Amino acid sequence: MQEVFELLENFGAYHIATVDSEGKPHVRPFGSKMMLDGKFYISCSVPKNVYDQLAANGATEISAWREGMEWLRISAMAREVTAEAEKQHVYANSFYAAPDSRMKRSIDEVAFFELTEVVATYYAQEKKVFTW
């Protein structure tokens, strides 16, 4: 998991795919990610379509590419963090809570999703597959 997080970190921005209520796919650039207590999280603002789509259907894919024909694909289920204690803990460790963050938001304005049932495939000189 840590290696996948570091790969994604080195790729920078990535794209995330979600599905709307009609089954139509949506892909958008994304950047939020964090590792905390051995869990991999993504986050978003609540009043966005991406939140509605992940909350309704957690099946998602993340794709990142960089020059040199390296790319990373992560297929996962995104489980929304709804337990108050867990959400408080994740929020407190996120960039949304940092006093000097340009992305500062209140805890009610953001949602956190733990990536579970992950199959991450890294393609470079050779293919590597990671699961958790």
What does this structure look like?
The protein is an alpha+beta fold. The chain has a single domain, classed as Electron Transport, Fmn-binding Protein, Chain A (Pnp Oxidase, Chain A, Roll), CATH 2.30.110. The protein is built from 3 helices and 8 strands. It has helices at 2-11, 49-56, 84-92; strands at residues 14-19, 25-30, 34-36, 39-45, 59-66, 70-80, 110-123, 127-131. Strands 1, 2, 3, 4, 5, 6, 7 and 8 form an 8-stranded antiparallel sheet that branches.
Oligomer: single chain
| Number of contiguous helices | 3
Q: Please identify, by name, the CATH architecture.
A: Roll
- Please mark out the parts with pLDDT under 50 across 5 or more consecutive residues, or reply none: none
Q: Describe the biggest sheet?
A: 8 strands, antiparallel
CATH topology: Pnp Oxidase, Chain A
- The figure for the number of domains is 1
Order of helices and strands: HEEEEHEEHEE
How far apart, in Å, are the first and last alpha carbons? 7 Å
Q: Tell me the number of strands.
A: 8
Query: What best-fitting shape do the alpha-carbon axes yield?
Result: globular
Q: Given this structure, which CATH class is correct?
A: Mainly Beta
In CATH terms, the superfamily is Electron Transport, Fmn-binding Protein, Chain A
Structural class by secondary-structure content: alpha+beta
Helix content bin: 10-25%
Proportion of residues in β-strands = over 45%
